[in-house]
Design goal:
- Four copies of one chain form a homotetramer.
- The first copy, chain A, is of the alpha/beta class.
- The first copy, chain A, folds into two domains: about 80 residues, ACT domain (Alpha-Beta Plaits); about 200 residues, Rossmann fold.
- Chain A has eight helices and 13 strands.
- Chain A has a seven-stranded mixed beta sheet with strand order 7-6-5-8-9-10-11. Chain A has a four-stranded antiparallel beta sheet with strand order 2-3-1-4, with helices on one face.
- In chain A, a hairpin with a 2-residue loop joins strand 12 and strand 13.
- Chains in contact: A-B, A-C, A-D, B-C, B-D, C-D.
- Chains A, B, C, D: One of its GO terms (molecular function) is formyltetrahydrofolate deformylase activity.
Chain lengths: ~290, ~290, ~290, ~290
Amino acid sequence: MAERRARTATLLMHCPDRPGVVAAVTRFLATHGANIVDLDQHVDRAEGVFFMRVRWELEGFALDAEAFEAAFRSGIADHFDAVWQLHHQDRPLRLALFVSKMSHCLYDLLSRWQSGEWRVEIPLIISNHETLRPVAQQFGIPFHCFAISPENKAEQEAAEIELLERHGIDLVVLARYMQIVGPALINAFPQRIINIHHSFLPAFAGARPYHAAHARGVKIIGATSHYVTEDLDAGPIIDQDVTRITHRDSIKALVRKGQDLEKLVLARGVWAHLQRQTLVYRNRTIVFS
Amino acid sequence: MAERRARTATLLMHCPDRPGVVAAVTRFLATHGANIVDLDQHVDRAEGVFFMRVRWELEGFALDAEAFEAAFRSGIADHFDAVWQLHHQDRPLRLALFVSKMSHCLYDLLSRWQSGEWRVEIPLIISNHETLRPVAQQFGIPFHCFAISPENKAEQEAAEIELLERHGIDLVVLARYMQIVGPALINAFPQRIINIHHSFLPAFAGARPYHAAHARGVKIIGATSHYVTEDLDAGPIIDQDVTRITHRDSIKALVRKGQDLEKLVLARGVWAHLQRQTLVYRNRTIVFS
Amino acid sequence: MAERRARTATLLMHCPDRPGVVAAVTRFLATHGANIVDLDQHVDRAEGVFFMRVRWELEGFALDAEAFEAAFRSGIADHFDAVWQLHHQDRPLRLALFVSKMSHCLYDLLSRWQSGEWRVEIPLIISNHETLRPVAQQFGIPFHCFAISPENKAEQEAAEIELLERHGIDLVVLARYMQIVGPALINAFPQRIINIHHSFLPAFAGARPYHAAHARGVKIIGATSHYVTEDLDAGPIIDQDVTRITHRDSIKALVRKGQDLEKLVLARGVWAHLQRQTLVYRNRTIVFS
Amino acid sequence: MAERRARTATLLMHCPDRPGVVAAVTRFLATHGANIVDLDQHVDRAEGVFFMRVRWELEGFALDAEAFEAAFRSGIADHFDAVWQLHHQDRPLRLALFVSKMSHCLYDLLSRWQSGEWRVEIPLIISNHETLRPVAQQFGIPFHCFAISPENKAEQEAAEIELLERHGIDLVVLARYMQIVGPALINAFPQRIINIHHSFLPAFAGARPYHAAHARGVKIIGATSHYVTEDLDAGPIIDQDVTRITHRDSIKALVRKGQDLEKLVLARGVWAHLQRQTLVYRNRTIVFS
């Protein structure tokens, strides 16, 4: 496995579709010494929108982030009316995990971190219950409990936002956090909050999806990871997966089988974000390969 | 492949759960000389209902259908308050296919019949359009066109029912028939009309599910075969399956990928019915293995 | 979720196929007051063998394990020439985990135990390396390191067997244990050692399956959980699953995606064993539903 | 579905990885007026090879095929030492289907053609048996029977090659053709013969894979479409898929379930080729998205 782990930069962009965008961007990069290691481009012809992700090695590249911004803006972005983000993969992203009482996603995420599978930092875990404090302690991560009631919700979320910002959190992961997140928190982390919903959305949005799936008699259940927006369970989907069930499966069995899906689909959604493979356009997520 | 194709009988039953049902039924069968080749039983403990499918060889079995009915009723069914059906697999079932303009499911079903993969008879194809008459002709099957308008719908369906009954149809298969079937036809073939819906129900019920799936930005699409009831797209589900899509897939690509699913899921649903593996209870289908 | 967690007994058996086996067994159980909650039966007609799993509530059942043995042997087993096992689900099974350097399966199994998802006991973890001792410590489980060399292998495994027996281990789980297990250990735990192999067996048996899969250019990779026999990677398969890959996936990416499969397939294999759903016949595993 | 069906050209290429390839190619295309509608690029860093597929609209593009060849060779290919193919999607590809006695893949391919799902021509069907002549006749396609014996094989294949060339065949599809294809035919259609093998290769290569799968007790069966090379069942894989089975499935059931897979996997493999999404490098197939 002689793969180099070179430092790279990733550009995500979209703009109205016009001839010559790929040529212009790749020439811009080549001019400044970039060796492209990945380029994935897509034109949505129905919408007339061009999407691109391009990743290149920083070694030998002439522009630092600031210089890139100036040069790219004037050389490319203004001309093509592009919306873009540049990400330098030179430091681990910082994740905050939100949990309630169920531990399966929490264990899964923490073990990916602790084993080194994911190169991230997890400075804190936030919960609305004390239940999972021992798990946080076992993994040596500070645990903050903010009990939420209708009366104190805005206030508690303000405290959470302050805490998240103080710790320089890049991404919030709702790992079966059983509370609706309020608009202030959502707006503080736009397209930077990922939730796992325990159904195959848009089927069975809202509460108790396994009960609803059982009542409907479906033959397959699913899980969905998505960015959180103010519309409950309606944000841009990142990943989904399913598993087959039968009439033999009680609600309890659905829950058990579903939890394995939830772990997997949440982890894959977070991974795609960490790799900077995701780009939200309207209410859809482009997941570059 | 030295499997015998012995003639068998299949009993499907459900009753309130009580100790001793399996023992009573299997003893009844053994007493009359049955060699059981399959027995699948399930207790839904939440509902308190017992379900069973049992299949035995007719060779050596002492009771014909009529004698069975009398003996089983007094010996077992009355005692356990059971609802039951007996099926003798001694003749091919007779299928009517309903189609509109799309041919992919029709070709798939006809080729399973013509190749001998399915031991069924298909005495007629019914459509609300002339489009697929050439396909019916090519396979040598009578094609009946009943154009449907709001004004003539009840009358046309009455004619269809008459035709279906005259041909001794056992099962109606809606192979992408783009018309809502009326109550008279549904009631004439209770739990004997199977539809394919081109989504993963209950997501995207109703018209244009691929458009809706594209708009929602799902990462997986599906298809569902179900028994038809008066609630549109809400009948008991027999089978479902899914396939992964990406942002690169246009609506046209969803349709193309979805059609392969539809063929498969409809065929599996019909096959389960042909094998007498299905038992509807309330709005769910038990699919015995 | 008002499911009772009643204490139950499970009988697994197989015998030459003859008419009347189900009737005899279920009448035997009914006679002694059993309320059957699950019965799954299968006849392999090519082999002429009858397989059955039946589970009943212990409440109200007249026979304890010893009385059952005597009565079942003389009443049923001798008559039908049956091979059978009776399992009382009245105590948690005791698992020993064998690991080497990779932690993903270990974390997954330990979190299922610690969260209470699985009602088992894990009295010890055995490894041929020190690497994962901190994980064991974090979960509070004794960790025993037995370094293995060609010279000391028989001796070390003898010590392991002694340790396993002293702790009353019911099931050994090889959670990416990168050592071939010797015959003495296999024979001490017949059909009670479950391994996870990181390929879709029988493809890519042996070492470095992800490298082999990459070299062959497959489009799907898999994982297999199986009972360990003296034939390497050739024991009876319990569960398998797969995931789609593309040409973009480096060997490193295959390893990363494969690890998620390994966790899932090992857990499902162990779960099936814990539920007493598995019955090995020749080199195949019947997995009852 | 307002998608235009514009005429497009597709370029497939690979070359040693160097900085600036994408930039050079896209600038070349832009210079000549191309509007790129798809670009998928991949660097295999372990091998040090760059792969690209780019598709652009022919409307407004200044170069015809001949002019492209000259300009691309001198401007790009020679410089980067590239291997490349240009495909103009301006005429339907011409397919020859090879079959033996089983009809399921044949029906599936013919119905995709006849329904207009695939824009291809199928001028002839070749078989080593008379069995499927009626199916060919029903679809109005000339059927040529070449009985093959060890003695006449070379001679018969020479006649087949002559026939294929006379009909301007672009792609040969082995739709469950139960004969090993000889080297002369393979060399006449390099990377233009697609076979469906009824197993999850490399497991169960060779004859009777369903029997072998049953004997091994696998829990999942598969099918594989691949380009044919002189190594039996070892050519570059295009697509694979799998389906879950249980101990209840006899060999006959495996065959039945497997045939649905074979239809699907062969059709997807051929579709990828028709879309010019495939590029063979050594013994692997790059399948661009």
